[in-house]
Amino acid sequence: xxxxSRLILALDVYGVEKAEDIAKxxxxxxxxxxxxxxxxxTSGIGVVQRLSRYAEVxxxxxxxxxxxxxxxxxxxxxxxxxxGIITHIFTGxxxxxxxxxxxxxxxxxxxxxxxxxxxxxxMLGFRDRLLALAKEAGLFGIIAPxxxxxxxxxxxxxxxxxxxxxxxxxxxxxSASDAILSGADYIISGRSIYESDNPSVEMDLINExxxxxxxxx
Length: 217
Ligand code: BMP
What we know:
eight-stranded parallel beta barrel; alpha/beta; single chain; TIM Barrel
């Protein structure tokens, strides 16, 4: 299932013990485990290697700095053996290029549209330009909201070969099937899984929902 699964588990917990407990249940059930600052701050970047025992790791540091700093961050994540990395795009083409060049074999996802209400105040208005930069830089994929189907549909129609990974499913109100039908290639979900009574059952249910939705396409 791991390679076929389109589910990316967002593991936003504190501390490696808690993370490892959920990661064990994710083994064989997810395409990747996405880690973010809460876990990296409490466990160190070595957590990438630790969790890679159970699934490939997507490092969501939302990098947003000058090219040299972006390069230093990306190199370190690559050394840890991550499957992929998430970067912001709004810092410009030179910063994005630095991430791409330092990424080695990692899949680079760039943030084009976000899932929270505040995204409409600023970022959503720039999505065309952000998408263009993602294409120009030859990224693997983009982040587009799994709870704002119109935006994701529109981006899918113009994203070419870029993959779309969509957060906002579960706790932020989006549904996995609607996100897939809007054009998402991967569903990112966190709290609906790690806060549930039975994370493995929850992951199985989401995988099944994704499978059914793919069948409808
Ligand atoms: P949750 O399913 O618990 O809401 O988690 C969503 C995850 O996706 C979090 O790690 C969050 O940082 C990330 N994310 C998001 O929710 N919206 C975005 O637009 C981009 C994200 O990376």
